[in-house]
Amino acid sequence: MLSLAARLLCLRVSGCCGGSRSMATVVSGNKTSKLVRERLQGDVLRMQVQAPGFRPGLVVLQVGDRDDSNLYISSKMRAAAEIGIDARHVRLPRSATEAEVLRSVQAVNQNPAVHGLIVQLPLDAAEPIDTQNVIDAIAPAKDVDGLTSVNAGRLSRGELAGCLLPCTPSGCMELIRQTGVSVAGKHAVVIGRSKIVGAPMRDLLLWSHATVTSCHSRTHDLPEQVSRADILVAAAGKAELVRGEWLKEGALVIDCGINHVADETKPSGKRLVGDVHYASANQRAGYITPVPGGVGPMTVAMLMENTVQSAWRVLQQSQAGR
Ligand code: GUN
Q1: How high is the pLDDT of residue 185?
Q2: Which of 107, 171, 188, 278 is the most exposed place for a label (fewest CB within 10 A)?
């Protein structure tokens, strides 16, 4: 007869006692993002009590007309409207030059009713535009994407109090907090080093006191690196790259991938998958985020969070100056 502790362990250990192992706990971005959005709704109402007529203001600046960007922007506009954020979508044509885009950014920087500005990426311009130059023109205090060199530099140094955090990594941290797993002292592995996800994710985990391994396209023996991870964040942009067999038993797996793969059984002929092979990872991980419904909705929620945070700062400064 097995003790209760041993039987509970069997639920987690693959193949033990000839029984099947339990699946990972699913970490829902749909649920967590809803909680964040509800909290922000309350914040906006409180602002209006403190300063009647005041609303957080957000501008989403788009160049061109990419279908994927249009979809992302409409979900941002919907979330903003629900929360009570005054959001405006400014669209420049594909023919816009870098100078014209910079002028639009400067105009928003100077508008006191706008507390947050994001430039939707990638830019869909006919002529080449230096994306980082455009991003760096955003006033750091309004950089609710956290992508300016100023905010990225603060984050890389661990100066978190004064900086706006990039939305996807910030959403991943919120999902990790939801699990109750503590980050300090853990071994975290981040796959991908993009400015928008991988690099800031590495920094956030590092300043949350994890020991971090940063993997990328030149990393040797990725399965070996992944097998050491207590916490894995996959942001490689490669469909189902990470196999369940690679994972440490019980690992916390955060999947930032958004990849379309062909699927003839779907009316659209395609289906959305992450960077992690979900079915096999689910057998081995302790916690896992689904795709869709994991990290994706958190990105939008954290953009709203940054916008409200930026508006609070302005409101508090104006009330302190009275
Ligand atoms: N394109 C895809 N994701 C993002 C994001 O988080 N921010 C911006 N600005 N563009 C994106």
Answers
A1: 98
A2: 107
Domain boundaries, the chain: 52-141, 166-296
Low-confidence ranges of the chain (pLDDT < 50): 1-18
Annotate 170-196 with DSSP letters as a single string.
HHHHHHHHHHT---TT-EEEEE---TT
Is residue 251 within 8 A of residue 284, CB to CB? The reply is yes
Place of tokens 């990470």: 242
Q: Is the pTM for the entire model greater than 0.85?
A: yes
Q: Is 120 in the pocket of ligand 1 (CB under 6 A)?
A: yes
CATH of domain 166-296: 3.40.50.720
Catalytic-role residue among 76, 142, 186, 248: 76
Q: What's the fold here for domain 52-141?
A: Rossmann fold (3.40.50)
Query: Are the C-beta atoms of residues 253 and 289 closer than 8 Å to each other?
Result: yes
For residues 247 and 141, give the distance between their C-alpha atoms in angstroms, rounded to a whole number.
Answer: 39
Strand order in the sheet with 252-255: 25-26, 287-288, 252-255, 231-234, 187-191, 211-215
Establish whether 238 is a catalytic residue.
no
Write out pLDDT tens, residues 8-41.
333 343 333 445 668 999 999 999 999 999 999 9
